[in-house]
Amino acid sequence: MYHKSVAVRLAYGSMSLFIAILHNVFLLYYVDIFVSVYKIDRNSFWLGEVGAFVLSQVTCLLSHKSNVLSLENQIENIKQDLDLYDI
């Protein structure tokens, strides 16, 4: 659903721009502070960030897959119970 109101579109666009700018400023200072406090180089920092992201995504996918398998097992058990009672 699209809003026809120019004010809503302008507000949404302004918020998106503000969040993008804030995110970039945060990353700029966050990386500088982290690198200077822990005395590591920028490449190692970004390698760690990418590694943490990949690990997070893999964990999420594996968790989702196990939840789906668990749900499928529960459905199969319910079907067996219904067959047992001829429902």
Quick overview:
The chain is mainly α. The protein contains 2 helices and no strands. The two termini are about 45 Å apart.
Written account of the structure:
The protein has 87 residues and is mostly helical. It has 2 helices and no strands. The protein has helices at 6-38, 42-84. It starts with 5 loop residues before the first helix and ends with a helix.
What is the N-to-C succession of helices and strands? Answer: HH
For the secondary structure, the number of strands is 0
What is the end-to-end distance? 44 Å
Shape label: flat
Q: State the secondary-structure class.
A: mainly alpha
Q: Count of DSSP helices?
A: 2
The averaged pLDDT comes out at 80
The portion of residues assigned to helices is: over 70%
Catalogue the unreliable spans: none
Over all CA atoms, what is the radius of gyration? Answer: 24 Å
Largest beta-sheet details:
none
Q: What proportion of the residues form beta strands (DSSP E)?
A: under 5%
List the main descriptive attributes of the protein structure presented here.
87 residues; mainly alpha; 2 helices
What are the SSEs and their pairings?
Layout: H1 6-38, H2 42-84
